[in-house]
Amino acid sequence: MYLLISLLPFILALLSIALFPLSLNHFWEKNRKKLLAAILLSVPIIFIRKFKVYTIFIDVVSNWEGLLTPPLPKGSKGKMNLIKRAGA
């Protein structure tokens, strides 16, 4: 899960490399502005690593299924579990 959180700035960096030259020609001409964009994209990862925010995020995401679906009645088995796991 932490890997997915770490990939988000990388994906945003790839998108900025692809889209900024097309949409923001003047901004993307200088290397300092490219460096600024890279630093801004790395700030969330530094924050997450420094303050261990990812543990809170992982707890929320791992319990997301319980937030979206009501708990199963006690003693229910088989199809009910399959339906819940499918997200219906």
What does the model show?
This protein has 88 residues and is an all-alpha fold. The protein has one domain (2-86). The protein has five helices and no strands. The longest helix is centred in the N-terminal third of the chain and has 22 residues, at 2-23. The protein is elongated.
Summarize, please.
With 88 residues, the chain is mainly α. The protein has helices at 2-23, 31-51, 53-62, 64-68, 79-86. The model has no long low-confidence stretch (mean pLDDT 71).
Annotate the secondary structure layout.
Blueprint: H1 2-23, H2 31-51, H3 53-62, H4 64-68, H5 79-86
Helix pairs in contact: 1-2
What features would you highlight for this structure?
88 residues; mainly alpha
